[in-house]
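Many introductory courses stop at the sequence. We go one step further.
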Amino acid sequence: MIVVTSGSAYLDVDAYAGCIAFAQLLNLQGLAAKAISSAPLNQSISQTLRDWPVGLDAHHATEHDHFVMIDISDPSHFDTCVDAQRVVEVIDHHPGFESYWQERLGPRAAIEAVGAACTQVYERWVEAGLFHAMNSSTAALLATAILDNTLNLKGQINTARDQQAYAALADKAGLAQDWPARYFSECQTAIEHDLPAAINKDLKRMDAQLPLPRVIGQLTVWNAQHLLQTQRATLVSTLQAHDPDWLLNLISIDEHCSYLLVGSPASAAHLAELLDVTFVEQLAKVPGALLRKQILRAALKLADKPLSK
């Protein structure tokens, strides 16, 4: 059995959709595969998406299974069911482990600078000549993951490959023109319903050697101004409980910007230099939405640390 899975901390929509769609592709190719995860689903997987007739499989990994990793390449953060020695393929778009996997898997390690891992998964369906066989719910999941990861196709990380993939998938799924606004608004409603839980499901701890806050959270909403005006104290207290040195990247899709909220003046000073932004009362507004992985990439470059391990 081939187990298609992702990380251990949480599952976002890119990992969720990518695992489901890639397992379906392998099965169509005659390879027994299951999409599984032991991680909690975060708020990017809205209730509407969870109600669609495609989802994760029920399967307990065994010592005979092999693993395909989607949207992750750092072995220290793999799902707890994964034996890294039995990983046979990696599809990811986060920097840091390109050489590590290239040495082990060669062409079966695809760690590429695209906006979404689901763009890569879509391309695998096309390369296999099986896109015609993809069901509409899977197409809708993949399209939504691309929307989320590329910030409605307007983020700095968005590429022509992401745009092409989204157009083909949205057409196949029959997504309405207002789907992006509906999706991101639903995510925001769920986030606001239990803000601490939403933050805790999208936190990453940074390498202490990097010029970054030790903990970075990220939330993507349709419009962030209301959230900052009404729940800033909750945002601060939730992050502060993890570490006094923190950053929250609050992405506002409708405003096409990011708000960077930090826990200390020292963090603000470091990030102001790193990203060339101005903080006022430990809050900075960045035109053009910014992703956490882009902040990490800037820090790696500043630290002169190779993007491969």
